[in-house]
Design a protein that fits this description.
Strand content: 15-25%
Mean pLDDT: 83
Helix content: 55-70%
Number of helices: 6
Length: 258
């Protein structure tokens, strides 16, 4: 039984420069992804959102390739996330189970579809982790607001926080094709059915929605924090103006009296 294993190794991978440097012609390639056959039956699928997927690769060759692609990674991880899926051929019918797929025979389009879904799954794990961190930071500020009636975050840090949230949301929307079927499935009923089954198996849509909703909550909280800081700053400014006017009035009376 063969295995697909996908690794989230970085924030992103420079697809264009890697394609130029790697001396092999991809079976499929565009600005976002590269799909290679290496040797007789070893496949590699590379995605610009930082995921590399392997089929029929041993751990030594996998490790060697991950080192090879490292210079083309932006913000590489010290420890990568991974997800794996078993592929069993020679089945009487194509069927997706919890941790494996049973198929009649394996072809390039089918394998590419399996590797895509496993890669999107591990990418969702990564984005879910980032969203959880943002939620924790937001909840800390909310709890502080409840207990002490104030925020401990500066305007500059808040703006960076908002930017980080929006960037993550845009990155997820841009890179993941959860709601769009791959082009190969458009005119192939067999591939389309398997893609739907794989989506359900990895619970991709529900996980995607959970991340989107989490980021929406974070964004709403940050907007509220921004309004509170703006109000606080406007109050401070009003008091400064009042104090300056008071000083001017006092000076005026002192000059009149003396």
């Amino acid at each position: 039984m063969d295995k697909v294993i996908s690794y989230q190794i970085a924030d992103s991978i420079d697809i264009r420069n890697f394609r130029t440097a790697f001396k092999a012609d991809p079976l499929y390639g565009d600005a976002d992804e590269l799909f290679y056959l290496v040797g007789v039956s070893n496949y590699i699928y590379i995605f610009k959102y930082g995921v590399v997927s392997f089929f029929n690769y041993d751990p030594v060759d996998t490790s060697a390739f991950l080192q090879l692609i490292l210079p083309f990674c932006r913000n590489p991880f010290s420890e990568s996330l991974n997800d794996e899926f078993l592929v069993e051929t020679g089945a009487p019918e194509n069927k997706v189970r919890h941790n494996k797929i049973e198929i009649i025979s394996l072809d390039r389009q089918l394998l590419q579809l399996i590797m895509l879904n496993v890669s999107q799954s591990v990418a969702l794990d990564y984005y879910s982790e980032l969203t959880s961190r943002l939620m924790e930071e937001t909840n800390y500020q909310t709890q502080l607001l409840e207990e002490k009636g104030r925020l401990s975050i500066s305007r500059k840090k808040l703006k960076k926080f908002i930017g980080k949230t929006l960037l993550l949301k845009n990155k997820i929307t841009e890179n993941l094709y959860i709601f769009d079927s791959p082009p190969d499935t458009w005119e192939d009923e067999r591939l389309d059915k398997l893609n739907i089954d794989l989506n359900k198996n990895f619970d991709l849509r529900e996980r995607f929605r959970n991340i989107s909703e989490g980021l929406g909550i974070v964004k709403d909280n940050l907007e509220l924090f921004k309004d509170i800081l703006q109000y606080r700053n406007s109050v401070v400014l009003e008091w400064i103006i009042i104090i300056l006017i008071s000083i001017e009035v006092i000076n005026f009376f002192i000059e009149k009296i003396f």
